[in-house]
Amino acid sequence: MNFTDEILDFLIKKNIKTVFSYPGEQILPLYNGLNESPIKNIMVRSEQGASHMADGYSRITNHVGVCLATAGPGATNLMTGIATAYKDSSSVIAITGRCKKEYINKNYFQEINMDFLNLQNGYFVDAPDIKYFEKAFNESINTKKPIHLNIPYGVLLDSNDDNNRNNNENNYKDEKNNKKDNTSILNNIDYNTTGKPLLLIGQGIYGNLSYNDILKINDILKNSHIPIATTYPARGVIDENNPICLGLVGGRGTEKANQYILNCDTVYCLGASLSYNTLPPLIRDKIIPKIKDIPININNLEDIELLINTLNYKYNNVYINNIGNNINPNNKLCGDYSLKINEILNNLPDDTIITTDAGNHTVFVSLLKTCGAPKNIISSHSMGTMGFGLPASIGVKFGCLDNNIDREVVSINGDGGFQMNIQELATVSENNLKILIIIMKNNRLNIFGDIKNPDFNKIADGYNIDNIYISDIDEIENNIKYYLNNNKPYLMVVECENESLPKKSFN
Questions:
Q1: Which pLDDT band holds residue 457 (cuts at 50, 70, 90)?
Q2: What family is reported (predicted)?
């Protein structure tokens, strides 16, 4: 067995069902091997698209997303997507090819140092040893960060002595299940039981849970005796219609969540990185002293239940009735752009997975969407990457297909960011992915200037994707119904007037 075959066996054992890739000389043995394996090898149209797809796949499945690219320009094209996964904390494995070892660091075709992809960590695979993959997978899953594996061409063809192989399944499970004593951790926290508490939840609450278990977190959190607020990527982990949920904290947060975090005495923080989006500079120094981190590992639902039971015991008499009602009032509606976004949201199923790009549409979706399910909105919340929305939706859709997740996938984009990865319409069309692709066409790049747009509908025609141009808000409902009643991709170009964004909180 050569190393390529061993890698494929490893990926299959780790339940990797889809890889997003683009072929190239230095990675060809593994690329061809994928095509002959049970794993779906999805050929993208740009390596940046592959890394965003792997990211989207990881975010919806809470498992590893895998992308594959060749040396040199293949690796450099991955960079934006890997940086996005790093900033937004997503488990991605990026596999890149390299020239034969004897040509490394020489003036050889496509030969450059590719350590720039090692934002969290990376491995130069200088021998056919599957331990590199074991380490990469363990690190990516446990840190929720992208890990890079750079493999010289010759190593892919080398054979490994059976006696030197590790039992990677056991190694993988041992590291994953190296739990802390959560009971001891919770017992050692200094609880301020006389004050006004808040539980702030970040996406770390997802831990190593399966998608099906993530859906059950709401049933535990709804029994909390203390109010709950969330960071952006954790929205929907508790139904935002629930009175104990104050909603999103931060610059684009709800008034109730932001006022409560300012006025409370203690903030119990679970799985939140406390970025400047969550705690903006103006209030950061006021909030940080109130923070009590809860550093428990989340490996099963019992870990979350233990936390809620502990807090409920400590705060048995906190009054929270109706504290979080109406956290997303529609007084944010003031213009044509936001009204059309609201009309789109009102006609989608409540549990729709919406990927957004970077721009006005992202803000309006966040302000107007009440999240009732985990992963309702998947966005580049920390990196703000234009060009993220479409390829991320493709990764999300494959994650849904691979894991029997029965939710609609909708990609809402601005007319600027959409053009940065517009070529991935080919991936949508080629795989007949049922994704609703929406382009908010206002011919404007926010405050930065105007943009001249192509005819998006003709481009969709070129990719054989059914499409419509919408200028009137009254056309939106029937076109969304048309999409929902069919099993194919649909592209809607929604003409809208430019609209200034509401001021951020704490500005």
A1: very high
A2: Belongs to the TPP enzyme family.
The DSSP code sequence of 367-378 is: HH----STTSEE
Distance, in Å, from the CA atom of 399 to the CA atom of 58, rounded to the nearest integer, reads 8
Model pTM?
0.94
* 481-502: pLDDT as tens digits: 999 999 999 999 999 999 988 8
The DSSP string of 364-416 is HHHHH----STTSEE--TTT--TT-HHHHHHHHHHHHHHTT----EEEEEETT
Burial profile 435-448: b = 16 or more Cβ within 10 angstroms, e = fewer: bbbbbbbbebbeee
Rounded distance between C-alpha atoms, residue 398 and residue 405, angstroms: 10
Right CATH for 3-176 from 3.50.50.60, 3.40.630.30, 3.40.50.970, 3.40.50.720: 3.40.50.970
Q: pLDDT grade, residue 55 (50/70/90)?
A: very high
Architecture (CATH level 2) of domain 182-314: 3-Layer(aba) Sandwich (3.40)
Residue spans of the domains in the chain: they are: 3-176, 182-314, 330-495
Could you tell me the CA-to-CA distances from 37 to 64, 246, 301 in Å, in that order? 18, 47, 34
Q: What is the pLDDT of residues 391-448, one digit of tens each?
A: 999 999 999 999 999 999 999 999 999 999 999 999 999 999 999 999 999 998 888 8
Please, what's the b/e burial string for 246-267 (b: 16 or more CB within 10 A of its CB; e: otherwise)?
bbbbbbbbbebbbebbeebebb
Cβ atoms of 183 and 29 closer than 8 Å: no
**Matching CATH topology for 3-176 and 182-314?**
yes
Kindly calculate the radius of gyration of the chain based on its CA atoms and give it in whole angstroms.
23
Q: Tokens 């690219």 appear where? A: 69
